[in-house]
Specification:
Blueprint: E1 4-13, E2 16-26, E3 31-35, H1 42-50, E4 57-62, E5 65-66, E6 77-80, H2 92-102, H3 107-120, H4 136-148, E7 154-158, H5 166-183, E8 186-191, H6 194-200, E9 203-208, E10 211-216, H7 218-223, H8 228-233, E11 240-249, E12 252-257, E13 260-263, E14 278-283, E15 288-290, E16 298-307, E17 312-318, E18 321-327, E19 338-343, E20 349-352
Parallel strand pairs: 3-8, 3-9, 6-7, 7-8
Antiparallel strand pairs: 1-2, 1-4, 4-5, 9-10, 11-12, 11-14, 12-13, 14-20, 15-19, 16-17, 16-19, 17-18
């Protein structure tokens, strides 16, 4: 297992600054996911770790060893690409063993390593086939196997599941998670898919414009987003965002947006706040809870529902504010009629409108 330490990393393409003064520590055996929208710098950062992109400033260390200017072949890494990058004229066996053969590894060792990787990935029966005879999921397993046989200290995955259908993505997510648990190597995984990030990662680094916005566990990133961007990027459907301000009523702190008044005395604030401060309230759909009957805090009007099988997504209107929330099949509701809900302010998020930071 190998730790990774990135210090004051800067990357430029000509006059364009992609990232500057980026710092990141990845622990031995950690599964770190770099998550963010297209163009945020996540693939560039991973390529810098792998030696495919040169640093303009700063340094990269593996277990304390400076590898900033080492060639990819000398870094002890295994890479898995989005496009599989398999040789079409070679069998699965030859694709997996290609790097070892180029490194002049003896035949017995190659056969042993290929058999081991094929067994882990459940592709032993495919070893004599060529890529054209494989499904997308099988091709990606071969690509992972090719990286595995190299005895890499660090594995880099660049959106490896994006070309697969939903069912295959779910299956291979599970296989990658099992693989990490089995071999315990350090893994860095790039994706824009939040489901992959939340299910695979030990920690998630959410990126925007070449800057890490938050680095934390999946639960903390989802439940306690560091800023409004992180809060809105994670979650499907997206977090409800309501702009308003803090006020004090009879000594109790409230959030107000027009006729929407919410008692927030139970909210666990990170910083001191003041009455009149302009803020944005962030509410996950699951934090707006059906009240049952007319006993809820707020009366909303259901405008649209979207059955999702085990649950129902509902779009409602409250005094001109649009809200998306979740219903169960057991809830008593009718589209176009009033419906009562409660809001759990302890699980909400407040962001300062000026800075976007969590309060």
């Amino acid at each position: 297992m190998t730790s990774v330490s990135i210090r004051n990393l800067g990357i430029r393409y000509g006059q364009q600054v992609v990232m500057e003064d980026l710092n990141l520590d990845i622990r031995d055996g950690e599964f770190l996911v770099l998550l963010g929208p297209s163009g945020c710098g996540k693939s560039t950062l991973m390529n810098a770790v792998g030696g495919l992109t040169d640093a303009s400033a700063g340094s990269i260390h593996f277990d304390g060893k400076d590898v900033t200017w080492l060639d990819p072949k000398d870094r002890g890494i295994g890479m898995v690409f989005q496009s599989y990058a398999l040789y079409p004229t070679m069998s699965v066996r030859k694709n997996m063993s290609y790097g070892l053969r180029m490194a002049r590894v003896d035949r017995a060792t190659i056969e042993k390593k290929v058999a081991w990787a094929a067994d882990i990935l459940q592709i032993t029966h495919l070893l004599d086939r060529k890529p054209a005879a494989l499904s997308g999921g099988q091709r990606q397993r071969v690509a992972i196997g090719r990286a595995l046989v190299r005895d890499a200290d660090i594995f880099l995955f660049d959106e490896p599941l994006s070309n697969l259908d939903a069912k295959l993505r779910a299956e291979l997510r599970l296989e990658i998670k099992k693989l990490h648990k089995s071999i315990g190597s350090t893994m860095i995984y790039v994706t824009h898919d939040q489901i992959e990030a939340l299910t695979l990662a030990d920690r998630i680094a959410v990126m925007k414009d070449g800057i890490i916005q938050q680095l934390d566990t999946p639960l903390n990133v989802y439940n306690k987003p560091a800023n409004a961007f992180v809060g809105s990027f994670l979650g499907s459907p997206a977090m409800n965002k309501i702009e308003g301000q803090f006020a004090t009523r009879n000594g109790v702190l409230t959030f107000e947006a027009g006729n929407f008044v919410l008692d927030i005395d139970a909210y666990p604030f990170v910083d001191r706040v003041q009455s009149g401060q302009k803020v944005t309230l962030g509410l996950r759909p699951e934090h707006i809870v059906p009240a049952g009957g007319a006993s809820g805090q707020f009366e909303v009007h259901l405008s649209l529902i979207e059955p999702m099988g085990n649950e129902i997504l509902a779009w409602s209107d409250f005094e001109g504010i649009s809200l998306v929330h979740r219903l169960s099949q057991e809830d008593d509701f009718t589209v176009g009629k009033p419906f009562f809900v409660n809001i759990d302010t302890r699980k909400a998020s407040f962001f300062d409108q000026a800075t976007g930071k969590r309060l």
